[in-house]
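Hey all, quick one. A colleague (J.T.) asked me to put the fe (ii) ion job into the tracker so the inputs and the structure tokens live in one place instead of scattered across chat threads. No bug as far as I know, just bookkeeping. Sequence used:
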Amino acid sequence: MKITDAFLGEHGVFYAQFDHVEQLLERGPTLVEIQAASATIAAPLVRHAQLENDLLFTAVEDQFGPGGPMLVMRTEHDHIERTLEAVACADTVTQASVLLREAILEARDHFRKEEQIAFPLAESVLSNDRLSELGQSWAELRAVRITGVVRAS
Ligand SMILES: [Fe+2]
Ligand SMILES: [Fe+2]
């Protein structure tokens, strides 16, 4: 399995989670409820970003040097993480709600850029064997068991 396919699958789960949290925000939650919802997004999102940085983006940069779309993606990871940290520190419902909506919008926009630009670029510069090796590393770090691995052609 290519690592890009693994990350696309993770995006799909996050999209469902973002929908759920946006619906919660419509119902007028308390500050504690907003911050709890934000924390359930932040922890897996930070890990998702770390894995993209450390596995896929690093592999592309090893061939082509830093900069370009991968650097933009890394910068956006940092920004989304800071916004979610600000939710945890917010003092009012309004502040926390605005920040959490902002973080979700940023994350949706970021995911679309990965899906439309960064991942296709990575797939064009890394071989299918390399993408599959990275997929195996992803599986080990995520404790996902991949059996019956079929090499991409
Ligand atoms: Fe990302
Ligand atoms: Fe991503």
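Adding what we noticed when we looked at it: Residues 49, 52, 73, 77, 110, 114 surround fe (ii) ion (ligand 1) (CB under 6 Å). The mean pLDDT is 95.
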